[in-house]
Amino acid sequence: MSYVFEPAPVPTIAVADSDDLVPVRRIFCVGRNYAAHAREMGRDPDREPPFFFTKPADAVVMDGETVAYPPETENLHHEAELVIVVGTGGRDIAEADALSHVWGYAAGNDLTRRDLQSAARELGRPWDMGKAFDRSAVIGPAHPASRAGHPDKGFIRLTVNGETRQDADLSEMIWSVPEVVSILSHSIALRPGDLIMTGTPAGVGPLAAGDVCVVSIEGLGEITTTIGPRG
């Protein structure tokens, strides 16, 4: 038996201070996990059950790369996020056991075609074209939890051309890392290499060609993305 087409390369993210790579299986994203961001998006920040959407694994972009301004949008937005790297799979994971399934963490930037997302939301349609487009998941080097611990507080910031756009604390997340892992695992079996982008704080905003966007998270360093001309 042979493949009809050559199999696609395995998407990967870097590991901090190492030549190793994390193979990426799936990317899950938590919607509206900071109260202030929920308000700026016109939503109720009350502690309703979290919802999830996905990005394709091959949407991953590593630190330092240039991302072309994507097609079919006039309103590309940045969203700084803490990213969970799942190391041990499981289903129906108890909240008390959730951190034992986490291999590590990374800084991320959930690039969003906001106009397409907003139009889909108003029509009750899926967000895929607004969220799951090519090169939409900027994810920096992963830091093993064995070294970085399990961050539940500390700054999360984003700057564009040196100007601070987002500045919050991880402790402001509505749903904590153990809760997110547990809740998601009750809906779908998690596997090693799954990534979970945990939501963004307030201050999301537009990016233009030539912009340099930097996400920094306490204890996880920073990642830089340059927005190139329209692709």
Automatic annotation (TrEMBL):
Pfam families registered for this protein in UniProt: FAA_hydrolase
Molecular function terms from GO: acetylpyruvate hydrolase activity; metal ion binding
Keywords of the record: Hydrolase, Metal-binding
Record keyword Iron-sulfur present: no
Domain Fumarylacetoacetase-like C-terminal: start-end pairs: 27-227
PANTHER family associated with the record: ACYLPYRUVASE, FLUTATHIONE S-TRANSFERASE
Protein name: FAA hydrolase family protein
The organism of origin for this protein: Oceaniradius stylonematis
Lineage, opening ranks: Bacteria, Pseudomonadati, Pseudomonadota, Alphaproteobacteria, Hyphomicrobiales
